[in-house]
Automatic annotation (TrEMBL):
The keyword Isomerase applies. One of its GO terms (cellular component) is endoplasmic reticulum. Keywords: Disulfide bond, Endoplasmic reticulum, Isomerase, Redox-active center, Repeat, Signal. Its EC number is 5.3.4.1. Residues 25-154 form the Thioredoxin domain. Belongs to the protein disulfide isomerase family. Residues 1-27 form the signal peptide. This is protein disulfide-isomerase. It catalyses: Catalyzes the rearrangement of -S-S- bonds in proteins. PANTHER family: PROTEIN DISULFIDE ISOMERASE (PTHR18929), THIOREDOXIN DOMAIN-CONTAINING PROTEIN (PTHR18929:SF197). The keyword Aminoacyl-tRNA synthetase does not apply. GO terms for biological process: protein folding; response to endoplasmic reticulum stress. The lineage of its organism: Eukaryota, Viridiplantae, Streptophyta, Embryophyta, Tracheophyta. It is found in: Endoplasmic reticulum lumen.
């Protein structure tokens, strides 16, 4: 049996070693929550907390990221929180390539300002970490948000194989994008699909439809020289007359989306101010 005195001595000797072992780095000293296991039934288990210091780290692991800029004191932010958490859990269960994150905008003022946040809560959608983002104006419920997020994950590119289909596009739509490809699947088709999800589909602009074809006859209808290099891409707009704009940049999602964005037709000019919803057009 050790005497009480030697026990105390032992404890005194061991404690600095224990402290050193349990705090291997200064980072874990200041963020003990990082080394603690998550509470299993934490309803916010699937909501990623972001700060200015680690904001961009999420884009390295997730292509699509939704960020809720909230204020802890704000009634609407608090009301959104459980719905947002439920949306995150639902999407995580489906295994979709999307992360739902939140930023305390009262702590991260600069970060919030950099993203044009003027009211709380502001929910933005990021694709490929692009500074492009789309504020959520819908109902702040789980069901509505699941639909909104899911829609943004689905690429919408339709195949065009016949002249008949192509003519319908030219006469039927006001804005369309057509890619002339070697194949309806593969790398170029994937880039086009990604560009279609980058497209801001807000009611401020007419919906833009994305198409792809391998048919030289279809390409010709869109004034693309069938002998032109593939991939090529053309944008069709109809105002008083049909206007075709040929894309000559790199065949990658982001620059294609930029091109489309720069060439589309606003339905009306709309003056943005905080908290208001663009009227349904
Ligand atoms: C970002 O930092 C905060 C505060 O330190 C931390 O709670 C959070 O888990 C971090 N997020 C990521 C994705 O590392
Ligand atoms: C874009 O808007 C159109 C028309 O409003 C809709 O049919 C389509 O599903 C939307 N696409 C996405 C990706 O949200
Ligand atoms: C277009 O065609 C490709 C290749 O056949 C196919 O994988 C893809 O599902 C088609 N897309 C649509 C929207 O039908």
């Amino acid at each position: 049996m050790p005497t009480p005195r030697s026990l105390i001595l032992l404890l005194l000797l061991a404690s600095p070693i224990f402290i050193l072992l349990s705090h291997p780095s200064s980072a874990s000293v200041s963020h003990p929550d990082l080394i603690l296991p998550k509470v299993v039934n934490d309803i916010e288990a699937h909501v990623v907390v972001l700060t200015a210091a680690n904001f961009s780290s999420i884009f390295a692991v997730r292509r699509h990221v939704v960020v809720d800029f909230y204020a802890p004191w704000c009634y609407w932010s608090r009301k959104l929180a459980p719905e947002y958490a439920a949306t995150a859990s639902h999407l995580a269960d489906k295994g979709l390539d999307v992360a739902l994150a939140k930023v305390d905008a009262t702590q991260e003022r600069q970060l919030a300002r950099a993203h044009g946040v003027e009211g709380y809560p502001t929910v933005l959608f990021f694709v490929d970490g692009m500074p492009k983002h789309y504020p959520y104006y819908g109902e702040r419920t789980k069901d509505a948000m699941v639909v909104w997020v899911s829609q943004r994950l689905v690429p919408e590119v339709q195949n065009v194989s016949t002249i008949y289909e192509a003519e319908k596009i030219i006469t039927g739509h006001s804005v369309a994008v057509l890619a002339f490809l070697d194949s309806l699947s593969g790398a170029h088709s994937d880039e086009l699909a990604a560009a279609s999800t980058l497209e801001d589909n807000s009611s401020l602009y007419r919906a833009i439809n994305f198409y792809q074809t391998t048919s030289p006859d279809v390409a010709k209808l869109f004034h693309v020289d069938p002998k032109a290099k593939r991939p090529s891409l053309v944008m069709l707009k109809k105002q008083e007359e049909v206007k075709l704009t040929v894309y000559d940049g790199e065949f990658r999602a982001s620059p294609i989306a930029e091109f489309v964005s720069a060439n589309k037709i606003p339905v009306i000019t709309y003056h943005h101010h905080t908290g208001s919803r663009p009227s349904d057009i």
